Amino acid sequence: MNRIYAMCAALLVVFAACQKAGDNSDYDFGDNFSDTPGGSAVEEGPFADGYGRLPETVRLASYNVHRCTGPNTSVADYDGLAAGIKMIDADVIGLQELDSKTKKHPYKQVEELATRAGMSSQYCKTIDSNGGEYGIGVLYKKGLRIRDTYSGNLPGDEPRKFFFLEFDDFSFICTHFCHKSVENRKNSVDIINDYLIKTWSTYKKPIFLVGDLNCEPGSEEMKKMLGTWTMISARKATFFNATTPKCIDYVLQWNGNNPQTEVLRSGIPQFQNVDFAKLSDHYPILVDLKSF
Known about the structure:
Shape: globular
Distance between the termini: 31 Å
Order of helices and strands: HEHEHEEEEEHEHEEEE
Structural class: alpha+beta
CATH class: Alpha Beta
Largest sheet: 6 strands, mixed
Mean pLDDT: 88
Helix content: 10-25%
Low-confidence stretches: 1-20, 24-43
């Protein structure tokens, strides 16, 4: 019932002519992804009956919101995005490509989305941009408590960050890797791992990482990542362009502290009243885990 659009709709999208720093539209990712033939974003299997929450679960998600604009417009659609985020109903969702008080988007986008979706928010600046800021952020349900936060530098043609948040029952990292350099992405994996080993070596609760990693499941950098992390999100096409859709957005779990979790299902949410293909150049990705 909820499977209302196929990837062919996304392939007809025309990208905006202007390309901003940090957008993926200025880079050819190549074609080294073969884990899911066709890369279809049409959801099947565990979500055949819809995306309602299962009892006693934790839902995590990631969404590159493209400055809150669709692929063929520069006008921010806060209401549309917030409606989609609200329907995703994640406990915590990491967001990438957020403007904050720029000339084109004069609002703190993460706060606009949080207010409309009825969630709390945290923001992490990565660069100065167009008279304001640009960065990543996290929305989380108001009942959750943040115990600690940390932002660390990552390499890139433009500065990148990883944003660490400790909640009561788990920790959560949101990030957006460099989109032009394999070495920068591989070094980013090392930097995050080093931080966790040095700072959280005795931490016994699960640590999750979400974000736009700008690499596909079969890439060198993802193979490196999977030496210390487990991919718990579906291998589905999350970034769509005029030629070939790509799986570059993920939810992963750190293996360094032997976490005891159970993944129930993962997929790209699709709803009758929300067309994610018009809200960003990425689809959101979600994961349901048994409560821990």
